[in-house]
């Protein structure tokens, strides 16, 4: 289904997120024929960062040329470019935006729907939302709210109140682009469509779960955002715990938004409070010298923690989450360690290393990602020597289309279609902040780590013992 005609308003249109993901993503949607028949994209920013329509088009062209999947040229680009315009908006002076939106709507015959995307720093959310309320723009429209949603329980509640004073919950799309990743969506299929996996997905068969997202990139000029956020809020609360929700949820009755989100929220409700002693924070050496970072900054650029989902399915199974900047590899991997059968009969022939690598389900949720089941097999020969074997699913082996939409693309499309399934819900977010409270009230100071390493020493072994972080080389 193609969405109805839309005017998409991009707040933060000249910012980092719009440049890297949103503008290239919108162009990719246009190329894929998934934008509405008729649409306009209005960029917006405070007056001090205002640009002309022409400069916004040039900015869009640059961003697609640098970060897009294809070149900004040809008839597809021309149509897209013609749909772009810019209107500045300050809380007290929204007139240029109002004017630009009106012009865009008129050009579509006055019956287009409005979708706002708040790609602005979190402190700016309330003033933009309030402005959308008092100008009347909010009426009959939808709003995508970026992350992190609040910085703790109190601020998330306050933000929800601000939003609900202007928008009905059915109009609100809290975005977490990891939930839009093709390979994350596929976890539902893997878990619930397969007799091979479904019966073992519980505490009787799984010893522990790892959700591991190390990054090689550093700050990339985002100091202003990152200093007030840090790895725990930027990645753990936002993305990794959302992925955990999908790994750990009960089967929903249907895949409609309500049952699907109900089940995820129940996981967050069952999270044990996160004790400071279960978290290792790190800061890469040299972070304090980055432009825009305080010389005595206490912001963590790395966080690894142990979480527990205290419910019938998962009681006693530790979930280890890890993410950080400037680490040795960029990966997005979920590993489920499986309970071993008694291996005594194989003991003389089993190296400890192979034993450790077998008995695992590994889900790489990069793009396009892959899934592997690691098991032990007999090495050909006259003796019963065991070696590591793997069954691997790769998209390209099974489907002609190896790449789906990128996370943001899928979610912007869903928002236009008013489908909230893959968006986070206020009660779920509040449960996550609630569980995070003991850690947030008394966070351990970040320990230094060398850029290009695996983070501070206690996170490498101690935190996860007796298990080990598991990152297979590739699919
Ligand atoms: C963003 C974080 O939400 O996700 C970034 O703010 C992080 O710090 C990014 O690098 C990772 O997402 P992806 O999809 O680019 O790997």
TrEMBL record:
It comes from the Bacteria. The active site is at residue 239. The keyword NADP applies. Pathway: Carbohydrate degradation; pentose phosphate pathway; D-ribulose 5-phosphate from D-glucose 6-phosphate (oxidative stage): step 1/3. Residues 188-464 form the Glucose-6-phosphate dehydrogenase C-terminal domain. Keywords: Carbohydrate metabolism, Glucose metabolism, NADP, Oxidoreductase. The keyword Protein biosynthesis does not apply. InterPro entries: G6P_DH (IPR001282), G6P_DH_AS (IPR019796), G6P_DH_C (IPR022675), G6P_DH_NAD-bd (IPR022674), NAD(P)-bd_dom_sf (IPR036291). Its EC number is 1.1.1.49. HAMAP family: G6PD. PANTHER family: GLUCOSE-6-PHOSPHATE 1-DEHYDROGENASE, GLUCOSE-6-PHOSPHATE 1-DEHYDROGENASE G6PD. This is Glucose-6-phosphate 1-dehydrogenase. It comes from Streptomyces chiangmaiensis.
